[in-house]
Write a structure and sequence with these properties.
305 residues, alpha/beta, Rossmann fold, UDP-galactose 4-epimerase, domain 1, seven-stranded parallel sheet, 9 helices, binds nicotinamide-adenine-dinucleotide
Length: 305
């Protein structure tokens, strides 16, 4: 297959693009490099095009694709430029959606568990979304628009509500990189890991290798759907510190501090994975312990970034 990967220089997009090539697909990456990093593309053989997805002229010029995986987005959830957030995340998505509908090709796109906002129970795709910030709202707009066109689309449209993704290729994200990456950096330098009081917030952390595999699997979905992509397990920030201490052979206590985003913070996320399992016939394979072990030992150890 010939697959267009938008946001392919980013954390998840680059893993997806490289996995597609391993599986024998031809990949073209479109990314404006506003946030991604060329280092993520090391080893990729396919064409890389630097272009802003808000401008759809590029889609008209390129030879036909069999499918699009749309990962491009402004991903810093704390960004206050609402106009930029919505124009990239929603208008960019609209361009890709219109392209896929007109060409009658498959679309897999990145949504987010952010659409659920705060809750204290397992999150189901059917529940009422309550986004807490513009980022989450922009993703909800994409889901609503996609849902509208699912019936009339010739090929499946699959939205993936990623939960908290961690793993190799996220270093360029700075403060938006995962908790696992942030705490690893601190603990490596023998600093106390800094987490919000009192570390019992729980998130569904999923390893990027699982996310890339499930995203590629979504290209074979038999029907349109919006699907949670999580492990189905909610794990605490304190758990991450415990696991990193074990993997790094350290014994550092957490330093707790007040959460500056308390009013809009997701203190609990956990994916209901029933739809993931039934639609993609697959699920996450890595537990948090296995994912962190793999990430630290195979990818972070010895790196200076
Ligand atoms: N990482 C997570 O935990 C997570 C969770 C939920 C959803 N998501 C979604 O997954 C997708 C990938 O996220 P990521 O973590 O890899 O983020 P990332 O920031 O590493 O990747 C996003 C990529 O999109 C590119 N981009 C931004 N604006 C663009 C534009 N106008 N035109 C073309 N390219 C543009 C960036 O340069 C970057 O390479 C995003 O849609 C994000 O919202 C990520």
């Amino acid at each position: 297959m010939r697959v267009l990967v938008t946001g392919g220089a980013g954390f998840i997009g680059s893993q997806v693009a490289k996995l597609l090539e391993v599986e024998g697909d031809k990949v073209v990456v479109v990314d404006d490099f506003s946030h991604g990093n060329y280092k993520n593309l090391s080893g990729l053989r396919g064409e890389v095009i630097c272009h802003d997805i808000r401008d759809n002229s590029i889609l008209k010029k390129l030879p036909r694709f069999d499918a699009v995986i749309h990962e491009a987005a402004v991903t810093d959830t704390t960004l206050t430029d609402n106009s930029l957030m919505v124009s990239v995340n929603f208008n960019g998505f609209n361009n890709v959606l219109e392209y896929c509908l007109s060409k009658k090709i498959r679309l897999v796109y990145a949504s987010s568990a952010g659409v659920y906002g705060s809750g204290s129970s397992v999150m189901k795709e059917s529940q009422e979304p309550t986004p807490h910030n513009t980022y989450a709202y922009s993703k909800l707009l994409c889901d609503l628009k996609a849902a509208k066109f699912m019936k009339q689309s010739a090929k499946p449209i699959v939205g993936l509500r990623y939960f908290n993704v961690y793993g190799p290729g996220e270093y360029h994200k700075g403060a938006s990189a995962s908790m696992i990456y942030q705490l690893y950096q601190q603990m490596l330098q023998n600093k106390q890991p800094r987490i919000f009081k009192y570390g019992e917030q729980k998130r569904d952390f999923i390893y990027v290798k699982d996310v890339a595999r499930l995203t590629v699997a979504a290209l074979k979905a038999k029907r349109s759907a919006i699907i949670n992509v999580g492990t189905g397990q909610a794990r605490s920030f304190n758990d991450i510190v415990t696991i990193l201490n074990r993997v790094l052979e350290k014994d550092l206590d957490a330093a707790y501090f007040d959460n500056p985003y308390a009013s809009v913070y997701q203190n609990f996320t956990q994916a209901d994975t029933a739809l993931l399992k039934s639609t993609l016939k697959s699920q996450a394979h890595y537990s948090l312990e296995e994912g962190i072990q793999d990430y630290v030992k195979k990818h972070l150890a010895g790196r200076t970034f």
